[in-house]
Amino acid sequence: MAQYYRIPLKKNEPSSKYSWEEKLIIHKNIARTKYGRLVEKEPLKDVATEPVTDYDNDIGYYGPATLGGQKFQLLFDTGSADLWVPKVSYNNGTKTKHSTFDPEKSDTFKTDNKSFSITYGTGHTSGVAATDTFEFAGFSIKDQAFGLADTVSDDFTNAPFDGILGMAFDQLSELQAPTPFQNLINNHSVSSSVFGFVLGRAEDGTNGNSELTIGGVDPKFSNNIKYNKVVNRRGFWQIALGGAQVNDKTVDVKGGEAIIDTGTTLVIIPPEDADAIHNAIPGSKKQGQNYLIPTDSKAVVAFTFGGVTYNINPADMTVDDVGNGLSVSGIQGENMPGMENTWLVGDVFLKNVFNAYDVNKSAVGFAPLE
Protein backbone atom coordinates (compact mmCIF):
# COMPACT_ATOMS: atom_id res chain seq x y z
CA MET A 1 0.00 0.00 0.00
CA ALA A 2 1.38 3.43 -0.98
CA GLN A 3 2.66 5.66 1.77
CA TYR A 4 1.25 9.14 2.09
CA TYR A 5 3.20 12.05 3.60
CA ARG A 6 2.50 15.76 3.78
CA ILE A 7 4.92 18.55 2.91
CA PRO A 8 3.64 21.89 4.31
CA LEU A 9 4.19 25.00 1.87
CA LYS A 10 4.90 28.83 5.05
CA LYS A 11 3.99 32.43 5.23
CA ASN A 12 5.60 35.57 6.55
CA GLU A 13 4.22 39.08 6.82
CA PRO A 14 4.17 41.18 3.64
CA SER A 15 7.01 43.61 3.12
CA SER A 16 6.46 47.35 2.56
CA LYS A 17 9.91 47.72 0.97
CA TYR A 18 8.45 48.33 -2.49
CA SER A 19 5.56 50.42 -3.80
CA TRP A 20 2.82 48.63 -5.76
CA GLU A 21 4.30 49.99 -9.00
CA GLU A 22 7.76 48.70 -8.10
CA LYS A 23 6.30 45.30 -7.21
CA LEU A 24 4.62 45.06 -10.62
CA ILE A 25 7.91 45.90 -12.33
CA ILE A 26 9.59 43.14 -10.32
CA HIS A 27 6.89 40.57 -11.23
CA LYS A 28 7.10 41.44 -14.94
CA ASN A 29 10.91 41.54 -15.04
CA ILE A 30 11.16 38.13 -13.40
CA ALA A 31 8.80 36.66 -15.98
CA ARG A 32 10.46 38.45 -18.92
CA THR A 33 13.93 37.24 -18.01
CA LYS A 34 12.81 33.77 -16.98
CA TYR A 35 11.09 33.15 -20.30
CA GLY A 36 13.40 35.26 -22.46
CA ARG A 37 15.77 32.34 -22.99
CA LEU A 38 13.37 30.06 -24.83
CA VAL A 39 15.29 27.50 -26.86
CA GLU A 40 13.85 24.51 -28.69
CA LYS A 41 15.51 21.35 -27.37
CA GLU A 42 14.81 17.64 -27.75
CA PRO A 43 12.71 16.27 -24.92
CA LEU A 44 13.95 13.93 -23.15
CA LYS A 45 6.27 4.51 -5.73
CA ASP A 46 5.20 5.88 -3.23
CA VAL A 47 2.89 8.89 -2.80
CA ALA A 48 4.00 11.63 -0.43
CA THR A 49 2.60 15.03 0.43
CA GLU A 50 4.50 17.78 2.10
CA PRO A 51 3.11 20.93 3.71
CA VAL A 52 3.81 24.11 1.76
CA THR A 53 4.25 27.65 3.08
CA ASP A 54 3.32 30.85 1.25
CA TYR A 55 4.89 34.26 1.76
CA ASP A 56 4.08 37.94 1.28
CA ASN A 57 0.36 37.34 0.77
CA ASP A 58 0.76 34.45 -1.69
CA ILE A 59 3.71 35.78 -3.72
CA GLY A 60 5.25 32.30 -3.69
CA TYR A 61 5.27 28.93 -1.97
CA TYR A 62 8.12 27.01 -0.35
CA GLY A 63 8.83 24.03 1.89
CA PRO A 64 11.50 22.04 3.75
CA ALA A 65 14.24 19.83 2.33
CA THR A 66 17.62 18.47 3.34
CA LEU A 67 20.80 18.50 1.27
CA GLY A 68 23.90 16.72 2.52
CA GLY A 69 22.23 16.43 5.92
CA GLN A 70 21.73 20.21 6.13
CA LYS A 71 18.25 21.76 6.32
CA PHE A 72 16.83 24.31 3.88
CA GLN A 73 13.58 25.97 2.85
CA LEU A 74 13.15 25.86 -0.93
CA LEU A 75 10.82 27.69 -3.31
CA PHE A 76 8.85 25.19 -5.43
CA ASP A 77 9.03 26.44 -9.02
CA THR A 78 7.42 24.65 -11.98
CA GLY A 79 8.84 27.35 -14.28
CA SER A 80 12.51 26.35 -13.86
CA ALA A 81 14.48 23.12 -13.61
CA ASP A 82 17.43 23.66 -11.27
CA LEU A 83 18.05 23.08 -7.57
CA TRP A 84 20.39 25.52 -5.83
CA VAL A 85 21.29 26.64 -2.31
CA PRO A 86 23.72 29.26 -0.97
CA LYS A 87 27.18 28.21 0.17
CA VAL A 88 28.46 29.02 3.65
CA SER A 89 30.10 32.48 3.60
CA TYR A 90 28.51 33.27 0.22
CA ASN A 91 28.66 36.88 -1.03
CA ASN A 92 32.11 37.21 0.60
CA GLY A 93 30.80 36.33 4.03
CA THR A 94 28.01 38.92 4.18
CA LYS A 95 25.78 38.37 7.22
CA THR A 96 22.66 36.42 6.30
CA LYS A 97 19.53 35.01 7.90
CA HIS A 98 19.44 32.14 5.42
CA SER A 99 20.56 28.57 5.92
CA THR A 100 23.77 27.87 4.01
CA PHE A 101 25.52 24.73 2.78
CA ASP A 102 28.89 23.79 4.23
CA PRO A 103 30.70 21.17 2.10
CA GLU A 104 32.90 20.30 5.09
CA LYS A 105 29.84 19.01 6.94
CA SER A 106 28.88 16.44 4.31
CA ASP A 107 30.71 13.18 3.61
CA THR A 108 28.71 12.70 0.41
CA PHE A 109 29.42 16.09 -1.21
CA LYS A 110 31.13 16.06 -4.61
CA THR A 111 32.04 18.76 -7.13
CA ASP A 112 34.15 19.10 -10.27
CA ASN A 113 34.05 22.90 -9.81
CA LYS A 114 32.20 23.42 -13.09
CA SER A 115 30.57 26.83 -12.93
CA PHE A 116 26.83 27.51 -13.06
CA SER A 117 24.82 30.72 -13.37
CA ILE A 118 21.06 31.31 -13.30
CA THR A 119 19.18 34.59 -13.80
CA TYR A 120 15.67 35.21 -12.41
CA GLY A 121 14.66 38.62 -13.74
CA THR A 122 15.54 40.87 -10.80
CA GLY A 123 17.83 38.28 -9.22
CA HIS A 124 20.65 35.95 -10.11
CA THR A 125 22.88 33.33 -8.56
CA SER A 126 26.14 31.67 -9.55
CA GLY A 127 28.71 29.28 -8.20
CA VAL A 128 29.75 25.69 -8.90
CA ALA A 129 27.82 22.56 -9.85
CA ALA A 130 27.87 19.81 -7.24
CA THR A 131 26.12 16.63 -6.12
CA ASP A 132 24.96 15.37 -2.73
CA THR A 133 22.18 13.41 -1.07
CA PHE A 134 18.88 15.32 -1.32
CA GLU A 135 15.91 14.50 0.90
CA PHE A 136 12.34 15.76 0.94
CA ALA A 137 8.92 14.31 1.77
CA GLY A 138 10.55 11.17 3.11
CA PHE A 139 12.41 10.44 -0.15
CA SER A 140 16.19 10.28 -0.45
CA ILE A 141 18.10 10.86 -3.69
CA LYS A 142 21.81 10.08 -3.86
CA ASP A 143 24.11 12.20 -6.02
CA GLN A 144 21.46 14.82 -6.80
CA ALA A 145 22.90 17.61 -8.94
CA PHE A 146 22.56 21.11 -7.49
CA GLY A 147 24.08 24.54 -7.74
CA LEU A 148 26.23 25.61 -4.80
CA ALA A 149 25.95 29.38 -4.94
CA ASP A 150 28.79 31.57 -3.78
CA THR A 151 27.11 34.65 -5.25
CA VAL A 152 23.44 35.49 -4.70
CA SER A 153 21.98 38.88 -5.68
CA ASP A 154 20.47 41.19 -3.09
CA ASP A 155 17.01 40.44 -4.47
CA PHE A 156 16.96 37.25 -2.38
CA THR A 157 18.09 38.95 0.84
CA ASN A 158 14.63 39.23 2.40
CA ALA A 159 13.15 36.08 0.88
CA PRO A 160 11.97 33.55 3.49
CA PHE A 161 13.30 30.67 1.40
CA ASP A 162 16.99 29.76 1.10
CA GLY A 163 17.10 28.42 -2.46
CA ILE A 164 14.97 27.20 -5.34
CA LEU A 165 13.77 23.73 -6.37
CA GLY A 166 12.98 23.72 -10.09
CA MET A 167 10.23 21.32 -11.19
CA ALA A 168 9.98 21.85 -14.95
CA PHE A 169 11.34 19.37 -17.50
CA ASP A 170 15.04 18.48 -17.53
CA GLN A 171 15.80 20.21 -20.82
CA LEU A 172 15.42 23.59 -19.10
CA SER A 173 18.17 22.79 -16.60
CA GLU A 174 21.17 25.13 -16.61
CA LEU A 175 23.01 22.35 -14.77
CA GLN A 176 22.07 19.95 -17.58
CA ALA A 177 21.00 17.38 -15.03
CA PRO A 178 17.78 15.62 -13.97
CA THR A 179 15.55 17.43 -11.50
CA PRO A 180 14.94 15.78 -8.12
CA PHE A 181 11.49 14.59 -9.16
CA GLN A 182 12.84 13.15 -12.41
CA ASN A 183 15.41 11.25 -10.34
CA LEU A 184 12.61 9.85 -8.17
CA ILE A 185 11.02 8.54 -11.36
CA ASN A 186 14.31 7.22 -12.73
CA ASN A 187 15.05 5.47 -9.43
CA HIS A 188 11.54 3.93 -9.28
CA SER A 189 11.04 5.62 -5.91
CA VAL A 190 7.51 6.75 -6.84
CA SER A 191 4.72 4.65 -8.30
CA SER A 192 3.39 7.56 -10.35
CA SER A 193 5.14 10.24 -12.43
CA VAL A 194 2.77 12.91 -11.07
CA PHE A 195 3.24 15.69 -8.52
CA GLY A 196 0.69 18.33 -7.62
CA PHE A 197 -0.08 21.38 -5.50
CA VAL A 198 -2.78 22.87 -3.35
CA LEU A 199 -1.88 26.55 -2.95
CA GLY A 200 -3.87 28.28 -0.23
CA ARG A 201 -4.44 32.00 0.21
CA ALA A 202 -3.52 34.18 3.17
CA GLU A 203 -6.69 36.29 3.04
CA ASP A 204 -9.08 33.52 4.03
CA GLY A 205 -6.61 31.49 6.10
CA THR A 206 -6.45 28.54 3.72
CA ASN A 207 -2.70 29.07 3.28
CA GLY A 208 -2.29 26.63 6.16
CA ASN A 209 -3.75 23.92 3.92
CA SER A 210 -1.15 24.34 1.18
CA GLU A 211 0.66 21.15 0.21
CA LEU A 212 2.79 19.47 -2.40
CA THR A 213 1.84 15.91 -3.37
CA ILE A 214 4.69 13.79 -4.72
CA GLY A 215 4.21 10.64 -6.76
CA GLY A 216 0.46 10.87 -7.25
CA VAL A 217 -2.69 12.93 -6.87
CA ASP A 218 -4.32 13.94 -3.61
CA PRO A 219 -7.26 11.47 -3.34
CA LYS A 220 -9.68 14.34 -2.64
CA PHE A 221 -9.29 15.49 -6.24
CA SER A 222 -8.59 12.29 -8.16
CA ASN A 223 -12.13 11.92 -9.52
CA ASN A 224 -12.40 15.47 -10.85
CA ILE A 225 -9.00 16.10 -12.39
CA LYS A 226 -8.80 16.78 -16.14
CA TYR A 227 -5.43 16.59 -17.91
CA ASN A 228 -4.10 18.70 -20.78
CA LYS A 229 -1.18 17.57 -22.93
CA VAL A 230 1.97 19.70 -23.04
CA VAL A 231 2.10 21.26 -26.49
CA ASN A 232 5.83 21.71 -27.12
CA ARG A 233 9.27 20.40 -26.21
CA ARG A 234 10.83 23.54 -24.72
CA GLY A 235 10.67 22.16 -21.21
CA PHE A 236 7.88 24.29 -19.78
CA TRP A 237 4.51 23.03 -18.58
CA GLN A 238 2.86 24.66 -21.59
CA ILE A 239 -0.68 23.64 -22.60
CA ALA A 240 -3.45 24.77 -24.94
CA LEU A 241 -5.65 27.64 -23.73
CA GLY A 242 -9.35 27.36 -24.55
CA GLY A 243 -10.39 30.92 -23.75
CA ALA A 244 -11.42 33.38 -21.04
CA GLN A 245 -14.67 34.63 -19.53
CA VAL A 246 -15.73 37.46 -17.24
CA ASN A 247 -18.99 37.00 -15.34
CA ASP A 248 -19.87 34.03 -17.58
CA LYS A 249 -19.46 36.06 -20.78
CA THR A 250 -16.79 35.03 -23.28
CA VAL A 251 -13.98 37.52 -23.82
CA ASP A 252 -12.26 37.67 -27.20
CA VAL A 253 -8.60 36.84 -26.54
CA LYS A 254 -5.87 35.82 -28.96
CA GLY A 255 -3.79 33.72 -26.57
CA GLY A 256 -3.65 30.11 -27.68
CA GLU A 257 -1.30 28.54 -25.13
CA ALA A 258 -0.45 28.92 -21.44
CA ILE A 259 2.64 28.13 -19.37
CA ILE A 260 1.66 26.92 -15.90
CA ASP A 261 4.14 28.27 -13.35
CA THR A 262 3.91 28.01 -9.55
CA GLY A 263 6.96 30.29 -9.31
CA THR A 264 5.11 33.24 -10.88
CA THR A 265 2.62 35.22 -8.79
CA LEU A 266 0.53 36.92 -11.46
CA VAL A 267 -1.16 35.95 -14.70
CA ILE A 268 0.85 37.76 -17.38
CA ILE A 269 -0.67 37.92 -20.86
CA PRO A 270 -0.32 39.94 -24.09
CA PRO A 271 -1.51 43.54 -23.54
CA GLU A 272 -4.37 43.24 -26.05
CA ASP A 273 -5.73 40.26 -24.14
CA ALA A 274 -5.31 42.12 -20.85
CA ASP A 275 -7.25 45.03 -22.36
CA ALA A 276 -10.07 42.72 -23.43
CA ILE A 277 -10.41 41.10 -20.00
CA HIS A 278 -10.27 44.35 -18.03
CA ASN A 279 -12.72 46.07 -20.38
CA ALA A 280 -15.20 43.45 -19.16
CA ILE A 281 -14.47 44.07 -15.45
CA PRO A 282 -16.64 46.92 -14.12
CA GLY A 283 -14.62 49.82 -12.73
CA SER A 284 -11.23 48.67 -14.00
CA LYS A 285 -8.62 51.26 -14.95
CA LYS A 286 -5.36 51.28 -16.86
CA GLN A 287 -2.59 53.36 -15.35
CA GLY A 288 0.32 53.50 -17.75
CA GLN A 289 0.87 49.86 -18.65
CA ASN A 290 -0.59 48.58 -15.38
CA TYR A 291 -4.12 47.35 -14.74
CA LEU A 292 -6.13 48.27 -11.64
CA ILE A 293 -9.52 46.98 -10.53
CA PRO A 294 -11.91 47.99 -7.73
CA THR A 295 -10.73 46.58 -4.40
CA ASP A 296 -14.27 45.36 -3.74
CA SER A 297 -14.69 43.88 -7.24
CA LYS A 298 -16.91 40.80 -7.38
CA ALA A 299 -16.20 40.12 -11.05
CA VAL A 300 -15.51 36.43 -11.71
CA VAL A 301 -12.77 35.85 -14.26
CA ALA A 302 -12.45 32.31 -15.61
CA PHE A 303 -10.11 30.41 -17.92
CA THR A 304 -10.92 27.36 -20.03
CA PHE A 305 -8.53 24.43 -20.47
CA GLY A 306 -9.45 21.20 -22.22
CA GLY A 307 -13.10 22.20 -22.47
CA VAL A 308 -13.42 22.82 -18.71
CA THR A 309 -13.85 26.32 -17.30
CA TYR A 310 -12.21 27.22 -13.98
CA ASN A 311 -13.19 30.32 -11.98
CA ILE A 312 -10.76 32.65 -10.22
CA ASN A 313 -11.91 33.74 -6.78
CA PRO A 314 -12.38 37.55 -6.87
CA ALA A 315 -10.15 37.73 -3.78
CA ASP A 316 -7.24 36.47 -5.90
CA MET A 317 -7.74 39.18 -8.49
CA THR A 318 -6.86 42.01 -6.07
CA VAL A 319 -3.12 41.74 -5.43
CA ASP A 320 -2.06 45.00 -3.78
CA ASP A 321 -4.15 47.96 -2.51
CA VAL A 322 -3.14 51.20 -4.24
CA GLY A 323 -5.69 53.49 -2.53
CA ASN A 324 -8.77 55.29 -3.75
CA GLY A 325 -10.72 52.05 -3.75
CA LEU A 326 -8.44 50.41 -6.31
CA SER A 327 -6.07 47.44 -6.24
CA VAL A 328 -3.49 45.98 -8.59
CA SER A 329 -5.15 43.39 -10.81
CA GLY A 330 -3.88 39.83 -10.67
CA ILE A 331 -3.82 39.86 -14.47
CA GLN A 332 -1.26 42.11 -16.13
CA GLY A 333 -0.26 42.76 -19.73
CA GLU A 334 3.28 42.27 -20.95
CA ASN A 335 4.83 41.24 -24.26
CA MET A 336 7.09 38.32 -23.36
CA PRO A 337 10.03 37.43 -25.64
CA GLY A 338 9.07 34.66 -28.04
CA MET A 339 5.63 34.35 -26.43
CA GLU A 340 3.40 36.59 -28.53
CA ASN A 341 0.31 34.39 -28.10
CA THR A 342 1.30 32.61 -24.91
CA TRP A 343 -0.03 33.31 -21.43
CA LEU A 344 2.01 32.91 -18.27
CA VAL A 345 -0.39 31.54 -15.67
CA GLY A 346 0.79 31.85 -12.08
CA ASP A 347 -0.58 31.57 -8.56
CA VAL A 348 -3.48 34.02 -9.04
CA PHE A 349 -5.13 31.24 -11.02
CA LEU A 350 -3.44 28.20 -9.46
CA LYS A 351 -4.80 28.96 -5.97
CA ASN A 352 -8.21 27.98 -7.34
CA VAL A 353 -7.36 24.46 -8.54
CA PHE A 354 -5.47 21.38 -7.52
CA ASN A 355 -2.75 21.56 -10.17
CA ALA A 356 -1.01 18.33 -11.14
CA TYR A 357 1.99 17.69 -13.39
CA ASP A 358 2.58 14.31 -15.08
CA VAL A 359 6.20 14.06 -16.24
CA ASN A 360 5.98 10.79 -18.20
CA LYS A 361 2.74 11.71 -19.95
CA SER A 362 3.75 15.38 -20.38
CA ALA A 363 0.42 16.68 -19.13
CA VAL A 364 -0.96 19.24 -16.68
CA GLY A 365 -4.15 18.50 -14.78
CA PHE A 366 -6.62 20.71 -12.91
CA ALA A 367 -9.39 19.96 -10.46
CA PRO A 368 -11.52 22.71 -8.87
CA LEU A 369 -10.92 23.18 -5.15
CA GLU A 370 -14.57 24.04 -4.57
UniProtKB/TrEMBL annotation:
Which SUPFAM superfamilies does this entry report, sorted A to Z?
Acid proteases
Which residues constitute the catalytic centre?
77, 261
Q: Which Gene3D superfamilies match?
A: Acid Proteases
Quick check: keyword Oxidoreductase in the entry? no
Which keywords, in A-to-Z order, does the entry hold?
Answer: Aspartyl protease, Disulfide bond, Hydrolase, Protease, Signal, Zymogen
**Molecular function via GO:** aspartic-type endopeptidase activity
Biological process (GO) annotations held by this record are: proteolysis
Q: Where is the Peptidase A1 domain?
A: 61-367
UniProt family annotation: Belongs to the peptidase A1 family.
**Name under which the protein is recorded:** Acid protease
| Organism, as annotated | Rhizophagus irregularis
Q: What is the lineage of its organism?
A: Eukaryota, Fungi, Fungi incertae sedis, Mucoromycota, Glomeromycotina
